[in-house]
């Protein structure tokens, strides 16, 4: 009798189980639809992810400009790869799927043109910058380059000259003054100017060579001196959309957007000299 008393409850249990399964199925369907919706823009366009490789000295300004571009182009998302221009150029030579390359020197871009990775007529000169010597705060003590030879200046941070344009410019200036061999013995090398700045800010270097624009957001490093521009080659930033770009149309739109007044103001505020027209 006890068995027959429990038997009628089974259909109810089965019905309840089916209801739970249907509810879970509906929830899963809802989540799937939500993800699909996130993968589409409000205008129904497929999202485009642009990969921008740019010199480390451009990081803050490029990201600010990129946010404005994304606001006006809802189907585009920008992913960044910041570093030494030489290293970024080498990545392109190895087939990196870069949509826009902005270098802190002409030479890495010229190499890409020579290898057919960038078309010569697509290269646009964007900005100019200045090389400076910095020290940990609060007050600088170095007023001229030969003071880097002082015994109390033990470590000098320099970008790796083979891959970091700022390091190449620094070595060139020091060679011009006949100081490179002695300063080189004190050198600690950074993979880009951001790392050089970090060495100085942390006190792990007594001085370092970075761009003038790198000091814009630094509260721990101070300016020692601006390097005479006649001691090194011009510091110029060319940009181009590589031949192998996955999204050349959107990348070209971003490059054109960087020449608009509102974006020029961002770079000028950071200390860059904006080039109005490519030569």
UniProtKB/TrEMBL annotation:
InterPro entries: ModA, ModA/WtpA. Molybdate binds at residues 57, 85, 166, 193, 211. One of its GO terms (biological process) is molybdate ion transport. It comes from Paenibacillus lactis 154. One of its GO terms (molecular function) is molybdate ion binding. Keywords: Metal-binding, Molybdenum, Signal. This is Molybdenum ABC transporter, periplasmic molybdate-binding protein. The keyword Metal-binding applies.
